[in-house]
Amino acid sequence: MTWRTTAFGGVVVLVTAGMTAYALSAIAENDRRTSTATAATTTTLAQVEKGPRIVFRHTGRDAEYGHVGAVALADPGGPRALTDLSCDRVYAQDRSVSCLRTERGVVSRYRATDLAISPPGQAWREVDETDLPGLPSRTRLSPDGRLVSTTVFVNGDSYLASGFSTRTAVRRVGGASYGDLERFKLVVDGRRVAPVDRNIWGITFADDGRTFYATVATGGRTYLARGDLAERSLTTVADHVECPSLSPDGTRIAFKEADESGTRWTPAVLDLATGRRTVLTGEARSIDDQIEWLDNDTVLYGLARQGEPVSDVWALDTSTTATPRVLVPEASSPAVLR
Amino acid sequence: MYLSLSDRPTTDVEPRSTGGRVSRTVVILGIVSLLTDISSESVSAILPLYLTAVVGLSPVAYGLIDGLYQGVSSLVRIAAGWLADRTDRPQPVALTGYALSAVARLGLIFAGGFGTISAAISLDRVGKGVRTAPRDAMIAASSDPAHLGRSFGVHRALDTIGATLGPLLAFVILWRIADGYDTVLVVSLGFAVLGVATMVCFVPFRTGAVRRVVPRRTRPRTKVRWRSALTPGLMRVTGVSGVLALLTVGDGFVYLALLETGGFATQWFPVLYVGTNLAYLALAVPMGRFADRAGRAKVLVLGHLPLAAAYLCAATGSGALWTTFAAVLLLGVFYAATDGTLAAVAGQLVPVTVRASGIATAQTAVALARLVAATGFGLLWYAVGPRVAMFAVCAVLLAAIPAGLAVLRRADRSSAAEPAEPVEPRGGRP
């Protein structure tokens, strides 16, 4: 046996042993975790659904990781109700829940499930299921719970070699789809255009059943666009806005604003009537979520803990210098049901 | 001393005539690629999920990273090819490329933010760019010239097996361990290290281009200049494959056109890539053998016929399932006929001393032309719609194929029979 063969044999043994040891310990850790109950105190859905509440995705490192949960708005850090529904992104309104999830496989499948919230305490009822063309990114429901929007990340068509591609659709819950929003009439800065590189993501609905707001990106810029489902149109109303979220009183848009490098996002608020922007500089970390309103003066967003698959829901007052605080620990994808 | 294709090559270590068998070095290089591809493709398969679900990057940030993933490698390819020729030691250059990618895997395990992750991914792609041309030069150097196409076929087949096993492995891990992304990254690092170790232990350090007939000290050191790789033959092949690459719109578009014409449901989209890979895997060796017999340059050009047929399937796709199957298969045939063949042809048309530079030049031209093609076709798609766009590219491609054949008419003959133009090592003839 030459030294080469010996050396190679040694490396193979070492590397294989290392990989196997790591995988075995990860399997043991995984099994230990899935056999333990959640660390958070739990309660029943019936209890939480008695009043205003926050629906979210539970991110505690336990058997219920990724399941949809709910807490009472009055006690967001308190006992949570956990459901059997597992989602990557979740959103809820008084009557419906939208759940986007990944079914991992050699070829992963992505699905959107719409559920109806039954009378308080009863299990949610699945009303519709749709295949998604890519990785779940955003979902929102209209205030009446009849319209649902989904944004996914499309793997197959990043045809511009660099850059990314999203696909955003709006559907009636349990009904017809308005189709890919890239096919809507697009007006940028007052001009009707049809750019090749348009991307649309992150929808928020107004309460009239036809108006919505979305991010439109083209030519390296992002815009806030007002959409009209009846006219099948999108018209830009501001620029440098991503993932808009309309306040409960319908006067303001919370969004995230990218820095110059386009890799760090800060929460901000835009007054629709005056066009005045307030950047919420009290949050120094990069916010990568579609913001949700707790009430007319407070925004919520999920934020991953550094180096952990656990995230928390943070609350931030909409004054410039407010300090963020954890509202719901071990949670992401918050939706407020008032 | 004249260096020409007829008194060519050879490695210092192995006998050059392999009597029709694929040389040991080629198989080992194939195994190195297999291990490395298991490593890189298992990460590619989980990267979107990992970055968005665990690291928490948004679509935009992920998109930027994905862009890096595609773009970086062609930049360094020519430089690495030149370095391999300059030192006449492609092995250490290629090894550096493999090692860089392994280090990048290690970096990815510890990376936590946008900056570190994009740094790790760029490093990985730089590694890929560095290793490709020297590795192909080694394959050419250690193969019997008469069976060059088959050698590349064997290498590419092994490579593709790795690319198919990688995602499978990642899936098995994630299936057993719910958020086992770390485990996938660690296992991926393991396979990268095994690839590097295989290379270190079994690919001779001196698998160079030219045997030093004259003892090194007495012979003036050969000055290798990239420009000497630009022989008329290579320029022709680079030009023809560059132009043809401009008419190569990318698999994604073909699949999308099939989707638009209703050939299949959206969720099957990724399966099409797998199908194309499998077809490539099955056909790489037979197609390489065929190229050896029929003429490699001819096969390189005619290999674009199945591509044109795939466009036709996509354009006419009436929603029938068989058009989807046909398109996937035809794309596999196209890759089998052109990918390894390009390196084989390019390597044959330049003096052995600058083989890595020559291969790198042709490969970079094709990569850049495909980048341009993707952008241009995107515009066309939106302007006239998928069907018309596909028909248009198909028509131009069909017109370009005979033209390409005419330009390369001589390439097969010159590589097979005529010795290429002699090269004069700078620094004086002995």
What does this entry look like structurally?
Chain A has a single domain, classed as Neuraminidase. In chain A, 11% of the residues lie in helices and 48% in strands. In chain A, strands 14-13-18-17-16-15 form a six-stranded mixed β-sheet, with no helix packed on it. Chain A has a five-stranded mixed β-sheet with strand order 1-4-3-2-27. The termini of chain A are far apart. Chain A is mostly beta strands and 338 residues long. Chain A is globular and about 80 Å long. Chain B has two domains: 22-205, MFS general substrate transporter like domains (Growth Hormone, Chain: A, Up-down Bundle); 227-414, MFS general substrate transporter like domains (Growth Hormone, Chain: A, Up-down Bundle), CATH 1.20.1250.20. Chain B contains 16 helices and no strands. The radius of gyration of chain B is 22 Å and the shape is globular. Chains A and B meet through α1 of A and α1, α2, α6, α7 and α9 of B.
Features:
heterodimer; A: 338 residues; mainly beta; Neuraminidase; six-stranded mixed β-sheet; five-stranded mixed β-sheet; 2 helices; 11% helix; globular; B: 430 residues; mainly alpha; Growth Hormone, Chain: A; 2 domains; 16 helices; disordered N terminus; disordered C terminus
Might you state the CATH topology name of the largest domain in chain B? Growth Hormone, Chain: A
Number of helices of chain A: 2
Arithmetic mean of pLDDT of chain B: 81
Structural class of chain B: mainly alpha
Tertiary shape of chain A: globular
- Subunit organisation of the chains: heterodimer
CATH C-level category of chain A: Mainly Beta
H/E topology pattern of chain B: HHHHHHHHHHHHHHHH
**What's the helical proportion of residues of chain A?**
10-25%
Return Rg of chain B in Å.
22 Å
Counted up, domains of chain B total 2
Number of strands of chain A: 27
Global morphology of chain B: globular
- Gross CATH architecture of the largest domain in chain B: Up-down Bundle
Largest interface: A-B, 64 and 67 residues
What percentage of residues of chain B falls in helices of 4 or more residues? over 70%
How much of the sequence of chain A is in beta strands?
over 45%
Q: At the third CATH level, what is the topology name of chain A?
A: Neuraminidase
Distance between the termini of chain A: 75 Å
Strand order of the largest sheet of chain A: 14-13-18-17-16-15
- SSE order of chain A, as H and E? HEHEEEEEEEEEEEEEEEEEEEEEEEEEE
Organism (chain A): Nocardioides panzhihuensis
Protein name (chain A): WD40 repeat protein
Transmembrane segments (chain B): 45-65, 98-121, 157-178, 184-205, 226-247, 267-287, 299-322, 328-350, 362-382, 388-408
InterPro entries (chain B): MFS, MFS_dom, MFS_trans_sf
